[in-house]
Amino acid sequence: MRRLLLPILLLTVAMAATVQMNRANEHADPGRATEVSSEPDLATPLLSARRAPEWLRSRESDALLTSSIRSALSRAGTPSSSCVVVERAGEQLAGSNLGVPLPAAELHRLLTASVINAVGSGSGFRTEIAISADAVINVDEEDGTAELEGDIWIIGGGDPGLATTDYASRFDNGRVFTNFDDLADEALTWLQERNIVTIRGRIIGDESKYAPNERDYDNALIETSEGRVTVWDRRDGNANEIGPLSALLLNDGFVDWPEDVIDPTLNERASNPSRSAAAFFDDILEFAGIAVL
Length: 293
Fold this sequence. Notes:
Layout: H1 2-28, H2 54-74, E1 84-88, E2 91-96, H3 104-119, E3 128-131, E4 136-139, E5 146-149, E6 152-155, E7 162-163, H4 165-168, E8 178-179, H5 180-193, E9 196-200, E10 203-206, E11 214-215, E12 221-224, E13 227-230, E14 245-246, E15 254-256, E16 268-269, H6 273-287, E17 291-292
Parallel strand pairs: 5-9, 6-10, 7-8, 9-17
Antiparallel strand pairs: 1-2, 3-6, 4-5, 11-14, 12-13, 15-16
């Protein structure tokens, strides 16, 4: 009798499961359809662009995108001077009016936005005046004066607005600039507080933040795949609007200018921006009574 107990139990469980399954099927059966729905189905037709390979329909999609861009530009305030380009993963998908030159004002905004995006809005340019690590201060016991034995470094941080008040005040457009006079005064005060009257060393302008250290793009030629070309190929190449470029650029790279007129063509370009900045600070020290030997 015990041998039959297990088979009977298994048979009972199987029959109960079969009955339960049939009941579930009956409840799930919606029955015969009596109406036909007029709503669109979700099936994709056999001949459909959605079934076409990507490479087969990409050209048509790009053409439609270009057409849409041109339509949008036609409604712009100045369609003839507007341009748009759309890229994906470095590949140009569409564009319109790509030959339109970028206005100078828009180029300024683009460069500003690019710099802020690259370095952050909280970043800035820092110009420093420092003495060499091995410099020593020798004090004369008799008169209390001191001599700085070592070099003074002016370390450029690439500030394009570094200028003196004498230079920047000539412009009446509210030009924002970093006042080099304030930096020089701080260094001069530091020396005077220590009663330093002599510097036995050099005044060195350091523009090594950028390489090459300096470059004058005016009428400069560079090698390209198309041969030697002028860096600034401009019809007004003699405008002299900016001097040589450097990480230590003082007064736009000019060493002399007319006092009573704003005419860049009359400005004298610095042959070496970092040396010019160092020479200017040397003059400040000499004028304050500190001899640089």
